[in-house]
Queue: 4 jobs
Job 1
Amino acid sequence: MNIQIPHQWLCEFLETKVEPSELARLLSLAGPSVEKLTESEGDWVYDLEITSNRVDAFSVAGVAREAAAILRQAGHEARFLPPAPPPIPKPDSRVAPLPLPQIEFDQKLCRRLTCIVLDQVQSVATPAPLAKRLRQVDLQVHQATIDITNYLCHELGYPCHAFDYHKLMALGGGFRIREASAATSVTTLDGRHHHLLGGEIVYESFSGEIIDLPSVMGALNTAVDEKTSAILLLLESIEPERVRWTSMTHALRTTAAQILEKEADPELMSVVLARGVELYQTIAGARVASPLFDDYPHPPSPQAISLSLAQLTSQLEVELTPATVSEILAQLGCQVTSLDSDKLSVTPASFRPDLLAPIDLVEEIARIYGYHNLPSRVMATALPLNPPSTATFQLESQLGVILSLLGWQELYTYSLVSAELAQASGFPLEAHLKLKNPLSSDRLYLRRSLLPSLQEALAANPLTTDLSVFELAHLYHPQTTGLPIEELHLTLLSRRDYRTVRGDFEALAAKLFLPPLEIRPEQPWANQAEICYQTSKLGSLGQLPSGEIYLDLILGEIAPLVQTHPSYQPLPKTAFHRQMLTFTLGQKQPVGDILAAINHFSPLITQVTLDSIYDLNYAFKLEFHDPSKNLTSEEVEEIRLALIQAIESRYQAKLVGEAGHQDARLS
Amino acid sequence: MTRDQLLDAIEALRVEFAQEAKPLSPESMSRYLGKNGRLRLLAKQLASLPSEARQAVGQALNQVKTDIERTFAQQATPEANEIDLTLPGLAPQLGHRHPISQAIDSISAIFTRLGFVRVRYPEVDWDWYVFESLNMPPTHPARDEWETFFLDVPDTTQTVTYDERQPRQRHPDLIGGKLVLTTHTSNGQVREMERVQGQPPIRMINIARCYRRQQDATHTQMFHQFEGLVIDRGISIPHLRGTLDYFAREFYGPGVKSRIRPFHFRFTEPSFEVDFSCHICAGTGQIGGEKCKLCKAGWHEVGGAGMVHPNVLRAGGIDPEEYSGFAFGWGVERTYTLQPGLNLDDIRLLYSADLRFLRQF
């Protein structure tokens, strides 16, 4: 929550000569962060962020208390001037007394309720100095009767509500605090009509009308207007969770609700009411017309916390004197007594319900001392020696580096996809995990394939004809019970041809020292094949109907096969022979079969690769080698001729050129 | 001649040859390389050396001979060796690693040097790990700040009375829960404590995709966070400061410092906001008398941190009386975009497939 505070207003509760810019710097270092310091109507205005646990600081006085503690610790002279309005006077004898409305209090729903009737309230313009402050903090200026409540809340941090007394009394002369029943409704001050769900805490008049959503917003039927002559000024402490629920359910996120849904201090109500009476008297000529109503059955009694100075020193690695520690805590409103040389007994103020344990006190001492003043050093403690056994982070990084060097562009696309992309995964839409509260329809399902996202990426770049992209990300497979399975996939999609993509895959496999993998199509000519190692399926590859080539690998399956180094093979001492054989093959003759046949034909054929393709002519490069002796040309020729004969007869292939000698001996 | 004398003579010959007038004359060729040339004469001296000295002198002599021969050969065919050195290069088809991957690698490497172990935990997780075990009871307003996406699956939570000091009573193994997309990597905190079976030391770095219901120039529905968690005996605020300073220096360069300021998170106590000093204005907030446009008074706000709350340690089965720890976490994208000179102000581009953007990295 942010609050704006003019410097001069702050100085009504803070005695200091420190310049606003320095004050802003020191506050940001040790207290609420000053996000902006701007000039407005001749004064500096701080824009502060107050964290949700510090509702006590969400006011001019609250920030002043923080500032005093921080400035003093930073070596400046400063003093907090607590709000001290005059006590509420007895009913004014100059006006006829007005009875308090009858209030049926329910202590289960409300911790405290206090109110008073003020008569002879004049509808006057808000005085210029107050109006200026309200403008400086971006609050609208209406008329004094209304503005005083906003001013009070900003100054002291506890919301109050002014009812039109006569309107309220006309509705049965009183009200009860109760839970709303369903199907009732209320029109709030802003003119909006709300159908209540039941369970909201309301003030219901004895005539059965809802006159307030307490701590959230008042009702129109008892609103103050220009004709109002008497008001009921009221403060309450309603169960915070209900305040929040009502405010959220009916989208009424008022400042009052945002304060009172937190642990605002009911002790503060007396001071705020007294200050309110003072302002209505001095500004609107009001006179107290009733006794004070105050139902407060169980005031809180903050518990003392025992603080060990030794523990403090070990947390901060700075030794602070007991006097310094006591001074810091006292400035923050705590009562401190020394128990022994190590222990202090600290009782936090009622406005600090966030201080419950020693660690909370350590935080307060450390921040006011200044986190920036603490030492900085890396811990010299034991190292963990048990990383998760399934970690693949190094492999993931390696894959990214290799693929990018091979010309592939890495993408990060959204895990959440539209219904259209989800369906393109091949799984039915209902077999996807769906968001209950999506922000947009294009991010609705958790994806079960990366391919549709990559296709979308390719489509977004129609002019890059050889584009190849990849992504490493999770797929999310729902389970009947429990968490979904998150499966890490590496998926590649390319506009380049199949041989190029497969070549890149083979290069990748080589760099990772993977064992020979098998590409298993259902039939030789198909648009999809599985990538396998022995009985494990590692992924798939194929061609999409749009012509793009894809490859999809399951990282958890690949990872166990990856090696950091090869098994060293002794360097050959005998010569290699290399030859090229070109065959004309029949239509749709799978080349893989020919390669396998050549490979298995003789143990002396140590390598065969497809060199080039021209129409139906396929050129194969063969390597002959015997590690035990140098092969002669005649021995090679013998194998070669037999191989040609076998391929020609088995596959109806035809050798291109002469079957004669084509030796090319290499080292 | 001794070994050293011979080496000196070889060096003298090299110097003398280098000073020969260019172009070299046929006479000079025979003077150096001829039958009775200088090199041959020196070679003859080798025989008189003891065998152990011959190798070094022989190598020196061979080197000089090779250089002299190459010089004569280049002079004989000067044009054969010439190329158009003004030709531009032929670019290989290079791909690009995504900037987020590059950032994740750098971040991981920095923390690995400090002995952190990288882990991975679910992106779709029980609300218990995302909120409740982190000291955020059900219906607590703090949960609102996280803009959570919920999965459309039955909520299996069974109602039990909440006891703040006994968070493990509400573990999903016992009472089920709601499935959410992780709003932060902090769900890894209690999971990591469980992985080590409540036995520190823990030095964890968890980098993962996170999700929040928000979208504008500085927020995307999906983003990446990294989370650090250290737990051991005697872990203190200065240790957190030291770790943050180390990261700032390593990631952004020498001279960059960290700063922690008070903040509030339910799962840390104390809690901090983490700033890094601005590398553009060297932390002064001023450039040439003007206000630095990239930072706030010399500092960049990057994320949150704090000392692990005792209730979180309890939820992970660790005794807060014996152990303490710190945690920090912030966006990978934000951290990356603060790199000097990057000037990237719309992080949505990171999740686009726009090659004009991606190919710059």
Job 2
Amino acid sequence: MWSSMKTETKEHNAIAATEIAEPAPRFSYSEERFFLVIAVFTGIISGLAVVCFRMAIEFSRIKLLGSSLLPSAPRILLAPALAGLVVAVLVLWVFPSVRGSGVNQTKAGVYINDGYIPFRTAVGKFITCSLAIGSGQSLGPEDPALQIGASIASMLGRKLNFPREKRRLMAPIGAAAGLAAAFNAPISAILFVIEEVLGRWSAGILGAVVLSTISSVVVSRWFFGSEPIFRIPPVELRRPVEIVAYLVLGVVGGIASLIFSWAVGYLRPKMKGLPRWTQIFQPAIAGLMIGGIGYFGFPQVMGAGYEFIDQALHAQFTWKVLAALALLKILATTISFVSGTPGGMFAPTLFIGAMLGGAVGAVEHMWFPHITGSVGTYVLVGMGVLFAGFLRAPLTSVFMVLEVSGNYSIIVPVIVANTLAYLIARKFQPVPVFEALTSQDGLQLPSMEEQREESILRVEDAMTHPTLPRFSGEDLASTALDRLASADAEFGLVRRNSNLWSIVKTDELREATRRSPASTSLDEVLQDAIIPHLYPDHPLETALKYLQKSPVLPVVHRTDTGRLIGVVYLADALKAYGRAAEHGE
Amino acid sequence: MVDGERVGLKHRGIRSENKMKIHSHEENGASRLMMRHEIAPTVVLCIISAILFAATTLLSRRFEEFRVGLAHRWFTRGEVAMQQNQPAQASSDFGNALFYNHENREYTFRLAQSLSAAHYDAQALPYFSTLWESEPGNGAVNLELARLQARNDGTDKALRYFHSAIYGEWQSDQQENRRLARLELIGFLMDRGLKQNAEAELIGLEAELPEDHSMDSQVAGLFLQTGDYGRALNLYRSSLEKEPLAKNFAGAGLAAFKLGDYADAKTFLARAFAEGNTSDEVRERLDDADEIEKIDPYLAHITTQEKSQRIFQLFNHVGDRLKNCKAAGADRLALAQAKYEDWKQLQKRVSVRNLHESPDLDDEVMSFAFNAAKLTSSVCGAGAEEDSALLTIAQSHPGVAR
């Protein structure tokens, strides 16, 4: 992957060099509007691509494994192995950039290559993941759909000659569209991209992301209907005390997340460290092993597994089978992923969580028969638990469960269980799995978890009490000059009409008093030289923009802009950033 | 942009207004150029999107037809498996069918049915519940849920679902399905010993029986079980018009016997015997009816003289029985002897002539005879056919037997 990233970086640098020679004009209001229009088209085209992608996966599965949900023995063993060989050849020699799930690769495209993701990546991801997932490799389609959408969006941004800052935003917009179409859950897709790709909320991008996501979901539902992927049986929380039962699920889910993360994090570099020629056979061997698991009684672990999540929701399995499926899916997904087979972790995470939730729920029902929550409820909550613990996207995990179930009575158990799993996973594995994988690839991408928790410095963190001389616009220039001299100050603040502010400098006043009569007021000297004023809750970076032009900026009260409560100097602003860095904020 | 800067720009804007007028012509040109840069790509993207949408639609339709075909093939396999009484295999096939056509309610229903038939109740229940949520008035779904609840001792829920099935909507043969659902409910109630509830349902069912009398015999048998012999006999009579079968004759005979109509009972039972129903019950009831015909003093068709004669014979019979009682145990023997002493006292007044002249003496003697028969049957061991017949006659005349 690192060599393919280098190739992409070279292409990106070529584009950037052209841009430096001919800098693009600043986006105007109509261009902002045009950007939103393009976001809609991004959503439509990404949605269509993902629709075709989902059909391709299913078609591959039917042709390779047969139309039965429980394939025959020869197909179970041979299909993933043979398809693994073909996928390996494609990945090694035709589409080298399609390894991995797609989430990290999209992030790398955004942060390293200014949002450049070649369209070839979309084509390669489409073909290899259709084969891999369709043949039974234990991977999911959502992450590849995210990358396909990002690649399409990136291509649109390049073709439309967007400036760099907008090109960089196109990939996340397409990523959200692709993910939403794959999972039929727009809110979760938006939150996931913001949590995992962007790392922070930004009003500038939110509108475009929402438009593209909605467009892609509309397209997806046009073809697949508006029903959720799972048929959710009636779920409800009847007695609040049963939340304790969900706490247990949170603990178990947290532990499972740790096991899963450790397995992937430990084995992946080992496999990557093997000689290059072995990479031809790694996906095939992984396919054979997964086929073996299927052959010996657990074909449910093959592929994305959504139909079996549906069966778990309808209590089709005993608790022992559920527990076994959870553990075997961890094993199978680890094998598939570390072998370098392209595919996502989204669906396997949901599968593992669902099975684990069902097992915990079934066992709790055995010991505490009066528990009113059905096994289906635990399955639903379990999906969110693993999502929060393994993928470390807590907000997405909550909304995903709500979107999938359409039932808000389940929100409290979901929040409780997800939070517990997230805290356990974070306590014992501080580095999330996606970041660990990125580090293994030699890339340094920003930590989304850290970005989410970064507190924004505000003006009040840097402002000081105003000690410099203050005047009003009506004051005489000569008087002001005298006061500045007596205070030994180079400049002072002047409150103008309408409670605006200006800076008056000593040399400026000297010149003015020399040329003008003694009765000249500061208003006449300064005229329309207004400086911006700040409020204490403004982000500190806002102050930085204006401190280049003014040595100091006034900080005023929101209810009375003539009331000065502090001032900000550039040095103090930089000190505030320094303190934040020391404290690790 | 912070407030002060916005105001500052406005000030500068006012001053430079004149300059703006000079540049407006150039800016109009740039604006037209910008519009072309936006409109042209938008139009192109619209065309590309439309083409891609059309292509995807075509692909999707072909794929959907492929999936529906797969679903139908699996569904057919499932139906074959059900006909071969392999519900477990059928559930797997129906599950595959449902996967490829998950909106098909029939597939969902058949899957749930097959799971239920294979006794995978926990797996069947969520599917039935999902169907019920969307169609709570569906008769077939309610009936299946009733069966599930009945198997799992959910009596109250089963009753509720049975009634919903009886009064629910059926896609075809509504009347017939409702009858069958009610019949099944009656069987459920009988199994749980709720005979009164079962009888109430039977009365409801009787009002809805088909005009071809095809169900009369079956319902008559159920009335017999609940003890409503009158209705049972009526229905047996109507069923005999269409189906003069041995079982119907036997049923009618038993019902008539229970009602005390021994002549008809004898006729029906004899006919049943002749038609091939040689069961012990028929044989015994026939013998009883025959014996009762011979000794019953209350038969409508005998004369008062014969009535008195029969009462006298019964009185003497019970006296012999008491006299010859071989009771086990002194207490029992004492009871029999005491009763015999009573008999001897009463004997002084009993003669055919006295019985003929005094109806009150008839009742007194018969009452004694019934009580003596009960006593001797409990303390003196098994008696003759006459004793059994006397006891049966006593049951038909509880007022006298007190």
Job 3
Amino acid sequence: MKNMLGIVIGYSHLLLDDMAADDPRRPDVDEIRKAGEAAVALLEARDAPPEST
Amino acid sequence: MAHKLRILHLDDDSRGTELTIAALRDAGYDCEFVRIDTAQLTAANEALAESERRLYEILDHIPAAIFLKDLNGRYLFANRRCHSVIGRQRSEVIGKTDEELLPPRIAQAHLANDRQALESGGSLEFEEFGAESGLEQRIFHSTRFPLRDSLDKPYAVCGISTDITERKRAEQAMSIARREAERANRAKSEFVSRMSHDLRTPLNAVIGFAQLLDMDNLTPDQRESVTQILDAGRHLLDFMNEVLDISKIESGNLSLSPEPVALPEIVEQVVKLMHPLGATRQVDVQALPITSRQRYVRADRLRLNQILLNLMSNAVKYNRAGGRVIVSCEDRDGGRVWINVTDTGAGIRPEKLALLFTPFERLGAEQTGIEGSGLGLALSRGLAEAMGGQLGVTSEIDRGSTFWIELAGVPAEKDITSAKESPAAGGPAADSIRGTILYIEDNVSNVRLVERLLRQRRPGITLLHASNGTIGIAMALEHKPNLIFLDLHLPDTPGDEVMRCLWEDARTRDIPVAILTADATVGQSGRLIATGAKAYLTKPLDVARMLALIDERLTA
């Protein structure tokens, strides 16, 4: 799962590098990057040892 | 007439005493001679004693408590186990009642059971408490029955009691363990679905925005990046759905809609879908003409499709270049039908066949670079069984494998026309579509997606946004939009409640509502459509479908 998310985050960085600063599509790509990172954070929270109940 | 007895002869020798008795009658010696050979008597007595000793010896070794009580409840006999349970010597037990020997509560219960057994006349079974001295309370299973004399009158009650305390404890432990396991299972399912639910939101954003970008003009490099993102997002979604499905099957929460499904159509559909994949691997995919008598099976159409796609994509992936995949149907006993998917791959070793359907088990395919989650077969089998069918495999090394789905055949019905979606014939110019759409949704990211989509693709449309149901209803009344997109998972009111309000108010009844739901179960959507929804869209958003829906509704 994290592999796939890594792909998503990685390619969105690539896209951002490839787009001009004023490219109207930047916000869209940024949404993708943020979503990918949010998903990774969710998975990592799950894998972390649970707090004491 | 009284008889006097007179001993006439008494002869004592090594064999015993021989006694001759005469019975005298009044008038003289009119007698009868009776000879009693006491040796025989003694021998008989000894044999009897021997027999009793043997019997008692055996009884004393029986691990059950065995006793005899007379009609007053006094012990006539108690074997070793019995008096040991009571906690006294045998001599202290014989002749006493339970009230004198046992704690009052237990004695009462025994008394009642004895009485019941005597009254019923047959053999009765009880569960009762015993108190083995020094130990905690034990539970016994007791069989009691009356003993009858030669005149068939009951003269005693016999009881045979076995200590079942351990068995009871084991039963209790097992039921506790079972409840625990069920609870753990439920917790696991809840965890899985919560995790999937939480992951859906970012996944929807990834797929949604990637679709948007995909529709734009991109450089070759950019397009490759976008394609990669889209593929990864879709794979993730598929995987999540598989995990969720398996979890639902395991917890028994999977909802299915069985109906008669026409075999020729579904097979043809799936084969067509597989052609592109087959082409990339140089595998020929084809269906044999359906020669089975049964032409319909009872199945959930969507899920059967899913199973067939899974089997066929496996058949193509685990095949050889220049190989073939063949789909066929055959009749089986009891009105059942097999759908066979046969490949010309390397076959599967017998020892690995058993592991095939284990979740996440890829049997070494991880090393081969063939992609897969390891869940497909586990899910397919779970789905087949949930539909009342089976999934199995036969395989021959170096020749290939055949995976078969068994389902119940359905007698042929009059032509069941499946509602096929007709492709939208040349839509109106995107720019000319005007109107107002109200989007009731609490998730900001989703709103932004639709906003961007409309701004790019349908600039003539004004998008209004309400972040909860209450505001949504108010805005619908105020602005009278041409179309409402309604998310079902709102913070304040459930989506179907909002729908009801819109429907019941004459001022908003005519506004078409399309519901957006992450829950793709047909049943729920069908219900909502019956209560006024005009269409449903599932998340992640299929951008093309949404646009088609907008075009359809706003150009009416």
Job 4
Amino acid sequence: MSDKIILLVEDNEDDEELAVLAFERSRIANAMIVVRDGQEALDYFFGTEANGGSDAKALPQLVLLDLKLPKVGGLEVLKRLRADPKTRRLPVVILTSSKEEEDMLNSYDFGANSYVRKPVEFDRFAEAIQQLQMYWLVLNEAPTSGGDRS
Amino acid sequence: MRGFAHSIVETIRHPFLILDGGLCVCEANAAFYLTFQADEAETVSHLVYELGGGQWDIPRLRELLEEVDRNGGSFKDVEVRHDFPHVGIKVMVLDAHRVVHDDGTPMILLAIEDVTDKMQGIDALYKLNRELDDRVGERTAQLEAANRELEAFAYSVSHDLRAPLRALDGFSDELLRSYADKLDDRGQHYLRRLRSGTQRMGQLIDDMLLLSRLNRGEMKRELVDLTALAEGVVAELRGREPDRTVAFVIESGLSAVGDAALLGVALENLLGNAWKFTSKKLSATITVGRQTHEGAPAFFVRDDGAGFDMDHISKLFGAFERLHTQREFPGNGVGLAIVQRVVHRHGGLVWAEGVLGHGATFHFTLPQEELI
């Protein structure tokens, strides 16, 4: 249906597979790209072609970002995204199992658009994913270009 | 008369000195000689300040005696501390009177109470108190550290256990949905059992976490409207299962002093239980009210449901102990343990009565006044 890409930053293989499963159930086809740690995420946006960077490739429509990531943590990735004009306006949804209030507050402080706790029960998890998809990819209007108004 | 006065002085237990107008010792009693380890020869007729080879040359004493000498009168309860070279530190309480003898000669009566031992006792007590304070402080710090460790452990256990649970739940769900045709009835049955197991495990983890959290944390102390809390819980229960016919009788104006959040959890569990154990009846009645128990107000939650056998009362409040099978009534057995913890933390008591097949009543007391 669309060329809208979702970038999923998730280190847990099971959660990755479950998220993909949930998206498949929703029947709204979106291309999903998965990166498995904070460094890979940064390389995707800021790296060169050689190490996974996207250069002029289209930015994702939505980033689903886990907080507990190896190498570079989710909050650090978020900070870097918000610091760069190219990615400053990108819709970022924190998708985490953390129940720590501090994590939520920090996420919002550093510019996350939304904070969702992964439910334990799969059907609620699937429903959450689908709701995210419906909202951020269909209802919500995302900026098409980067941070500079050219 | 002299002999009589002499006898009096000798009988006095405290060291006693009689000084003449020039502050020389006329007489000293046995208690004086004993306490200051002196004898008559080195005491009588000597200037008071020269006693014990100058030991009594105490500035404070000079001040006091000269004052009395000049202006007459007396002093009482004056504490003097001095380090006597041969006797050691002595703390003394002095009384002195200037009197005029029958023949007109002035005299100063000096009564000395040796309170050294008492003072040392008091000092030792202060020291002991400080040591105890320090020790209590240390223990408290240790306990707090242990509590924090325990909480971090409980949190990480529940948090880290949840992730694989999600996988179990999700993949078994997908199996049931998309691969049901590849499984026979028995296979599907096993899958369903698997799923229900993971769901129970998730609930258990949440309960464990809640139970561990109930032990720590500061409790608020404010006036809580128990009636309103109960009504809130009832609304939620009805919302979950609107088809059930249950009459709730909640006494108005129920209140207590405590932590609203914790009390809310307790009521959720008590009312939730009442709701659950009346689920097999076509219609049920659940009552929340207050009675007087041993002169103090006691709240109760009563239902007319499955009840329980009083023989098993000792298991009732145990964590993870159950009196019914999962098939009869689902649950983990922590609800009442949670209620008990909450009530106990408030300084109250909780107890129960039941009749198998007829219903159960759970009573609990809570503080009524705010502790200032």
